Amino acid sequence: MSEREVLELLRENARYSTADIARMTDLEEGEVEAAIEELEAAGVVRGYQAVVDWDELEDERVRAEVELNVHLDRETGYGDIAERLARFPQVKALRLVSGDYDFDMEVEGDSIREVSQFISEKVAPVPEITQTVTHYVMTSYKENGIELGDGEDDERLSFSP
Amino acid sequence: MEFELSDRVQTVPPSGIRRFFEIAEERDDVISLGVGEPDFATPWAARDAAITSLEKGKTSYTANRGKRELREAIADYVADRFDLGYDPDEEIIVTAGASEAVDLAFRAFVNPGDTVAIAQPSYISYEPGVIFAGGEVLPVPTREEDEFRLTVEGLEEAGADEADVLVLCYPNNPTGAIMPAEDLEPIAEFAREHDLMVLSDEIYAELTYEGEHTSIATFEGMRERTIVFNGFSKAHAMTGLRLGYALGPAEAIGAMNKIHQYTMLSAPTTAQYAALEALDSCENDVREMVSQYDRRRQFVLSRFREIGMDVFEAKGAFYCFPEVPEGFTAEEFAEDVLREQGVAVVPGDVFGDVGEGHLRVSYATGLEDLREALARLEAFVEDHA
């Protein structure tokens, strides 16, 4: 149970210090450290990343959601195709999904040209891929559970009864 | 012309937190731990219900006592959560915030000259409410060594056996103290023995972090002498929608309704639709907010101990009540820490003399701000050590 609590807190903010997490869960700091180590060793926690609002940066960052349809044969399964695609550093997320298409792929690049080239030159030619539909991200409102854009000020009174 | 103010209005001093509010307004980097309201937005389903009611033009008065459907939902909710049985037709009234319900009760049950015993530290509106009703306040101090729980000894020492009405607020604003069933039992016995009416403000009932909340109205012989107050402001994060309610015997609620129908007429209709939805489908939102408050509570208590400020182990509401370091009064500490570090806290003495030497610190604020605020408090304490 404490492991689950630690995990929830790390998901809320991976930069909480072990001391902060200990304070919030009423665990010893050593217990929190051990729980985190165990979660990492077991492969439950795979890494820690910042949630970025690219719109706040001047540098352009282009992202696209790509729908992929594939054709499987006796020798090739979804896993084989996924393994091949996941190796590309441009691919930030790859999921097998139910519905009208097979894979949902998130791609990032420095320009539309770069992302387009990557899809047309690296992804589309994969023999099992029968169709790609690319959606460029225009504005992101929420990432990893965090709302983006201008944070609203706390309009509550500084003091209230 | 010059307005001639009534004696009752002149008797009540301005709110003790007003001056601090003005100081806080002077700077733009204040982190406020001085607020008595959730930092969460009202659960979306409740907001959506309010919007839909507006879209459909449901903007007329409701029944004085509130929409029947809402009273039924309240009856089911308090039965389920707190083992309280009230008839939605005659024993429940929906009000504009629990504050209105408390005011109605003072006006309905306090005669000029009646004595109203108030367990202190207490929410700052009870005392003015009693005075506006023409009553006299009898403070009943609680002590930190008793975990700020009200005791029969405390009631006897204060002379509450002669009082007409007893006001309770558990979980407590400002201390965060709770009253478990075993502590309420002797208080109930005292009230029966001395024929006290009990006004029990249980607005923070859902925000009980250890054990279950017990209402004093559940003890034998107490239902007929108790009015219970609750509402949607705290647990459902609906402060601005102004919706509360009172539960009590038909005759008593009828008397409160008499005042309500000539002043408020009915509680805000839009808010009643939101409240209905809140009871119907927002239980998980409440659970999630309570769990967040609990984490913050543990964080804040632990940080105060690290800073070296003694702090009472608050088990309810969203306040903790640390002691100010030696050399300060509560007011001096609160003012200096606001001016020097931009952290707003409320001095404990505004909740009654017994609160002197303490601060009310609200953790209804995001964890990042809490962390920064506590770091600033630590710096302040070190600077003045």
Highlighted features:
heterodimer; A: 161 residues; alpha+beta; Arc Repressor Mutant, subunit A; Alpha-Beta Plaits; 2 domains; four-stranded antiparallel β-sheet; two-stranded antiparallel sheet; 33% helix; B: 385 residues; alpha/beta; Aspartate Aminotransferase, domain 1; Aspartate Aminotransferase, domain 2; seven-stranded mixed β-sheet; 13 helices; 12 strands; 42% helix; globular; sequence-specific DNA binding (chain A); Tscrpt_reg_AsnC-like (chain A); DNA-binding (chain A)
What's the layout of helices and strands?
The complex is a heterodimer of chains A (161) and B (385).
Chain A: H1 2-12, H2 18-25, H3 29-41, E1 62-70, H4 78-86, E2 91-96, E3 103-109, H5 112-123, E4 129-136, E5 142-143, E6 146-147
Antiparallel strand pairs in A: 1-3, 1-4, 2-3, 5-6
Helix pairs in contact in A: 1-3, 2-3
Chain B: H1 7-11, H2 18-26, E1 31-32, H3 44-55, H4 68-82, E2 92-95, H5 97-109, E3 115-120, H6 126-132, E4 136-141, H7 152-158, E5 165-169, H8 181-193, E6 197-201, E7 226-231, E8 244-247, H9 250-263, H10 269-281, H11 283-307, E9 319-320, H12 330-341, E10 343-344, E11 346-347, E12 359-362, H13 367-383
Parallel strand pairs in B: 1-10, 3-4, 3-5, 5-6, 6-7
Antiparallel strand pairs in B: 2-8, 7-8, 9-12, 11-12
Helix pairs in contact in B: 3-10, 4-10, 5-6, 5-9, 11-13
